[in-house]
Design brief:
The chain is an alpha/beta fold. The protein has 14 helices and 14 strands. It is globular and about 65 Å long.
Length: 381
């Protein structure tokens, strides 16, 4: 299949018309539509009136409750999934088989088995349709600048890092029936809340090699955890700590990386700008060097729009988007390893979890005290 013509707008279908579609995806799509890059041609939702109201509100010509029918009738170039993670595998595979690219809201899917099934539905060429994940924190100008400096060795070797997603969710949040459950939310804060910070940490630090995790239910009556922590070792030798929480009244998202020549810090909540990054040099680093490090350039906040611009460029150029294939899988593999380590009280190494491992098909792995009542360890791959 040849690349999508870069001068033609991507005909896009939005699947799931709830809050995240309205607040983040549709504004990004409409911004690019004004630039002639995208065109929203369909809306799909299991709630028919909701799909119709969404379509009417934003002048979208097609509305349906039937994804397969929409794919057959509309033949979109891009399908944007704003649905719960439990249906991401089925919907992604259907879209790929219909010849559409997929941009899927996080969490990507409930298991590595599901992710591998989605990737298996791709034809395999970079110019062929593929599925990618919403990991928008990789795409702000601050992350691009720091990533480039880290890759170029400007800061010296990364040595120690800290990644923190400490948020607060009250009982009313978990009163929504699908939250706090493995099958419908996909996991606790390690999966559903801290995944963006975790993904950014891995993107900046490079491949991880080992994780030792802990998880706890401290406040909420849920199947999943409400707190998780981890110790991480990276292939380059650096070590890190990771904290995910939904029981922290003073909410913050933070990454700190200490390198040989500088400390890099990012502090924000749900998205960052250039001003949220701070670079502190080690003694003796020339002022001119530091000035270059702090020259972030034009400010592009981390956002769905920032990532969508990159995705549309990649599709038009026949390139693999960085959150597709292995670039998306590594974050899900890390989170799976964190859960396995926490529930087995043993370290887990990159590459350890594959077919036949109970954690490959279920993030709880059937662990006593964590698996839902009546669940088994059947391989659903």
């Amino acid at each position: 299949m040849s690349p999508h013509r870069s001068d033609a707008p991507l005909r896009t279908a939005v699947v799931g018309t709830g809050g995240i579609a309205r607040s983040s995806h549709l504004p990004a799509l409409r911004t690019l539509a004004a630039e002639g890059r995208t065109e929203v041609v369909a809306a799909v939702d299991v709630d028919g009136p909701a799909a119709r109201a969404f379509a009417d509100s934003f002048s979208i010509p097609y509305a349906s409750t039937d994804l397969d029918a929409m794919l057959a009738e509309v033949r979109p170039d891009l399908v944007v999934l704003c649905t719960p993670p439990a249906v991401h595998r089925e919907q992604s595979v259907a879209a790929l088989r219909a010849g559409a690219w997929v941009w899927c809201e996080k969490p990507p899917c409930p298991s590595l088995a599901d992710y591998d099934a989605i990737e298996g539905a791709e034809k395999g060429g970079d110019a062929d349709p593929y599925a990618s994940i919403v990991f928008q924190h990789r795409f702000g100008s601050g992350a691009r600048h720091v990533r480039r400096l880290l890759r170029d060795g400007a800061f010296g070797r990364p040595l120690v890092a800290h990644c923190q997603t400490t948020w607060y969710r009250d009982a009313a949040y978990y009163a929504v029936p699908w939250r706090g459950r493995w099958a419908t939310e996909g996991g606790g804060p390690a999966m559903g809340h801290g995944i963006h910070q975790t993904d950014l940490l891995l993107d900046l630090m490079g491949p991880w090699s080992e994780v030792r995790g802990m998880a706890a239910r401290l406040v909420h009556d849920v199947e999943t955890e409400d707190v998780s922590t981890a110790q991480v070792r990276f292939e380059g030798g650096a070590v890190a700590t990771l904290v995910n929480s939904v029981v922290s009244p003073d909410e913050v998202s933070r990454i700190r990386i200490d390198c040989e020549r500088a400390t890099i810090e990012l502090t924000h909540l749900y998205g960052y700008r250039n001003a949220d990054w701070r670079i502190t040099p080690a003694p003796g680093v020339p002022e001119a060097t530091v000035a270059g490090w702090r020259a972030f350039g034009e400010d592009e906040p981390s956002s769905h729009l920032a990532q969508l611009r990159c995705l549309v460029d990649d599709i038009g150029s026949g390139r693999r988007h960085s959150t597709s294939g292995p670039g998306g899988r590594r974050t899900l593999e890390f989170i799976t390893a964190l859960y396995k380590s926490a529930f087995t009280d043993a370290p887990v190494h990159a590459g350890d979890i594959g077919p036949g491992d109970p954690y490959y098909t279920e993030l709880h792995g059937g662990a006593p005290g964590w698996a839902p009542a009546g669940s088994g360890e059947e391989d659903h791959a």
